Amino acid sequence: MDVDGSPHRDPELWFDDGNIILQAGNNMLDFPQPSDSERVEGCPLVRLVDSETEVAVFLKAIFDSEFFRPFPVYTELKIIVGVLRLSHKYEVGHLGRRALIHLSSTYDTELARWDRVTVPTDELGHSNMNHPAINLRSWWWTQNNADFIVLIPLVQEVGALWLLPDIFYNFAAVFHELDRDIFIRILTQLSVENQMAFFSGHAIQSKTAASEIMGSLSTGIIDGCSTPEKCTQRRLIAVDDLTSEIGDNPSDPLGIWGTGDWLSLAESVCPTCLASLRTTHQAARQEFWDELPEIYVLPSWEELEKLKLEAIGTNWLT
Predict the structure, then answer these.
(1) How far is Cα 168 from Cα 296, in angstroms, rounded to an integer?
(2) Widest pairwise Cα distance in the chain
């Protein structure tokens, strides 16, 4: 939109041979489809209530086959959001499915995939295809936490509920970083039901980080331990380190105690203790993941997986 608020042309969507003009917000798009309406420069004018940004990316996705390519080619969240919303509204099924696949490459329904190292594509659309597609994601998070406020109602609007547990989880994990303006936007833009589900789920998620996950390292002497005194002492130090991590990440139970922590612990506890602790820790994480939909008042993972399969299938490369 121009500073003076006057309509302007999108150069990528203004066609010299077009015979109709679409106005979204204050942006005019020349679109080759006949219609009877108010005229601008001799062409019928159709006013759209949709945002100019979303209309622009939606039309580019329709007319330019290189603009919004299938997973795993790189794209951006703002493009995914615009294409998804308007594909749903105007029933352009193949683009809607493509947008949902791109979102699903980041928001998981399985802890095993959540744990895998994903290899993002770059801004030029290049993917490292030496890795299986299941390990790839096709877009970078913008670091704008306010985007969660857009995603949550949009995902509900299009019925892609399988995305919500991980979206809610990630939103809760960064919630302590939100500034006052974003917090107010949450209260004004999310429905009352979403607010209640989020805040109650956030409280449970924070409690989990401080109890079940940390408790996985603070069990008694492990059967078969070859150096009980040394291992117990080192595990107590590890619990102190974990407590510090929880202070830095109060709502990120799946993210605390990662690969580097295990490598460090492996240098000071016996193999039996290390194997037992890793098993116990992973079991605690899996239990939390299994309960994640319920925490946020959503259907079970089984039901969500069925919705996902019906909507996007298993072949993401088309």
Answers:
(1) 7
(2) 87
- Residue 104: which of 149, 137, 142, 147 has the closest Cα? 137
Predicted pLDDT of residue 123: 52
Mean model confidence pLDDT for the chain: 82
> CA–CA separation, 298 vs 308, rounded Å?
14
Q: Where are the domains of the chain?
A: 1-49, 52-207+300-312, 209-295
Quote the distance between the C-alpha of residue 85 and its chain's center: 16
- Return d(Cα 104, Cα 155) in angstroms, integer: 11
- Residue 115: both structure tokens together: 């744990």
Instruction: Say yes or no to pLDDT of 178 above 70.
Output: yes
DSSP string, the chain: --TT---EE-TTT--TT---EEEETTEEEE------SEEETTEEEEEESS-HHHHHHHHHHHH-TTTSPPTTS---HHHHHHHHHHHHHTT-HHHHHHHHHHHHTTS-S-HHHHHS--EE--TT----TTS-GGGEE-----S-TTHHHHHHHHHHHHT-GGGHHHHHHHHHHHGGG--HHHHHHHHHHS-HHHHHHHHHHHHHHHHHHHTHHHHTT--SPPTT-S-HHHHHHHHHHHHHHHHHHHHHSTT-TTTSS-HHHHHHHHTTS-HHHHHHHHHHHHHHHHHHHHHHHHHTT---HHHHHHHHHHHH-S-TT-
Q: What is the pTM of this model?
A: 0.82
C-alpha–C-alpha distance, residues 168 and 35, integer Å: 43
With a cut of 50, say whether residue 19 has pLDDT above it.
no
- The span from the CA of 183 to the CA of 178, in Å, is 6
Residue pLDDT, tens place only, 70-80: 998 889 999 99
